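Reopening: structure tokens for the alpha-L-fucopyranose complex, inputs below.
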Amino acid sequence: MVTAKMFFCSFFFVACASAVFSQQKEYRLWYKQPAKDWNEALPIGNGRLGAMIFGRPGTELIQLNEQTLWTGGPVELNPNPESPKYLQPVREALFKDSIAQAIRLLRKMQGPDTEMYQPLGDIIINQQLNGDVTNYTRELNITNAVAITKFTVNGVNYSREIFSSAPDQVIVIKLRASKAKALNFTVDAHHELQYLKFVTPLKSLVLKGKARITNDERRNPKPLLYTDNADCDGMRFQFRIDAVSPDGVISNTDSSIIVAGATEVILYVSAATSFNGYDKCPDKDGKDEQMLAILGQMAAMKKNYTQLLSAHIKDYQKYFNRVSLSLNNAVAPNLPINERLANYQKGAPDFELEELFFQFGRYLLISSSRPGGVPANLQGIWNHLIRPSWRSNYTTNINLQMNYWLAEQTNLGEMSLPLIEHIRRMAKNGTSTAKNYYNMKGWAVHHNSDIWAQTNPVGEGNGDPKWANWSLGSPWLSQHLYEHYRFTADKKYLKEIAYPLMKAAAEFCLDWLVEKDGVLVTAPSTSPENVYLHPNGFKGTVTIASAMDMEIIWDLFTNIIEATEVLGIDKDFATLLKEKRSRLNPLKIGKKGNLVEWYDDWEDDEPHHRHVSHAFGLHPGRQISPLIDKKYADAVTKTLEIRGDDGTGWSIAWKINFWARLLDGDHAYTLYRNLLRLTKEYSTEVYTGGGGVYPNLFDAHPPFQIDGNFGATAGVAEMLVQSQLNEIQLLPALPAAWKEGHVKGLVARGNFEIEMWWKDGKLTKGFITSRVGGRCSLMMPYPVIIKTGRKTVDIAVVKQGGTEYFLSSDTTQKGKRYELSVK
Ligand code: FUC
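Re-run output (same inputs, fresh job):
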């Protein structure tokens, strides 16, 4: 683990060191009222420690999370030894169109569900305020990652500043009063379930608990219970709060801290769990969470507030300031976000809100996914529920992947390392899954994973195979392994980390593919989580060779073939994959002009279904593009038109990316606006339509699911720069509404960093920084040349998908910034 991390840091040094820090605009989400609900509270995080701040004057609520606090323990690798014997009968049933029989048998090939991500607890600050609250505001400044609540009572101004520091691994809260000694409050801690709470002789308030070893939701519908009992071996956790004040008197009860007569108070919050890796029992082989929390707290308390704050801002801005975006020279209207969202929904322009929402996705990724940690889950790191929706786990048929689409493009490549590390863990468990469930080589990942790197088909014998038995997680996740190479151009990483895992995923695919009517198909196959209407009058979920399966496998094989050329290795394997790729069941165009999703051109049970899995080849894949073949691009366009512009949050976000890849900036922009709809639904799981945002700009599935935030940011990046076809396209899908603008710091494959200005739909000026050297190619509808100083420039006019493009290409030197010449 340590070696792997060190390796990652070293290969990343090149990218980080050459990043040019830019001036950044100040982006603030601010409100005139405290949060009434969790979805109105404001998120902060340092990758590991998260908090939701309600900003309530009298009884402040700060809900905490620690990224590694999950139920359960290491996975059982062979929970269903009977599984392999059902595979052949499933295939036979599918080939005979006995779909109901195939579904019945597939349920026998399922295993345990995943564990759940858990809340850490709450901090409650009860402040004595003798009078009415006036001048109230609360804000989250995403340019420095600090949240502030301010209000006045009886002429005294009170403020609370809070941030979660990555360099010091604590949450810091500064409470201040404008009048000397006017602060009087108690600090309490709480958890929804059983816990132990006490104040130490040194006046640290401590809350400790233990997560249950199994979520056993299906077998035990009763609430989960935390216990301090030694024979329950779930994960231990604790958080500690210390108060420091230059002038106030700090005392305590058995279970709370009391502050009296203070002008300023700093609260330090540290937390730790006993999580010691995906394959270690979190109790008996767990880390000493008490020692970790105490040591972390002691180190932080040696520093004063100013030192902690400046270290935090410096660390955060090192990432955040790499990208700046300016649309139509927008300035923020002097209105709270909820009012701006309401105006926006009525059609008012608010380009600053559009910039802010783009940057908010980057803020959330920096705050929930740091090297050395685990990946951002369905809610990043923010969850207050014991039973969160979908267990707040890692869902791998779109959601986990979407969380990371923005990372490389928006200059946060390091933040994808937790995903890469998790893929390595899933590859280990997934090797057992491929062997134990199917008797196959390579590694397999199904629809869900968790901190324990679970990879088996979930559902426990009762799950609907349309999600539970989806089996192509390893080839899809391998795309992230390869994309990390494409963006960094780091051949050492490709050779040592990515390639062996990609190859093993391909070995699973080779075993998984079967021949039918002269072509290679997958069986069983699903098109996540959609349902078709079979001409024989039944509804089906399982099929043969869904378009998505074929596209995912095409993607992996193509990436491996390319990688073998880059590395000069494995020629025979590449030859084999080329042969297999040419025999994959081909994509088809249906009677409506749509891209066929299923084995045949069947109707959908729900034509507006949120998943658009068969458009994978357009995005995040690179098989389909208007620049390659108009025919398939037009078919996906038709498919998207039929699916419509609504959806869950992540579905709308995916559609932004689709339309950007179809080079239709205006349509992508329509979807971006749709996603910025204030949702009314706070807690119900809505599956059809209804996506949007909450007042805190968290994406609404509904309920809150963070992939929509990340996917939207990636979508804006796709509108501005694309490079999936290797050549860089600048402003490929610029909406007409963004008449003029400037963007700095987006990254293109090959490790090129871009700064550019545009006006009336056309590039006016630009620079490309070559971070590692190498050939840089541009594909533009008008001539754009990199000024490398060479006298002769290679520029060619090429016809791509029926349109003329100017292709220019030149060799660049590492670390050099080149101006673009625009004709
Ligand atoms: C998939 C999606 C749902 C939801 C869940 C977490 O099952 O179909 O919409 O996002 O993951």
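The pocket of alpha-L-fucopyranose is lined by residues 378, 390, 395, 399, 467, 529, 610, 648, 650, 687, 701, 705 (CB under 6 Å). Residues 514 and 521 are 5 Å apart (CA to CA). Marking as resolved unless the reporter disagrees.
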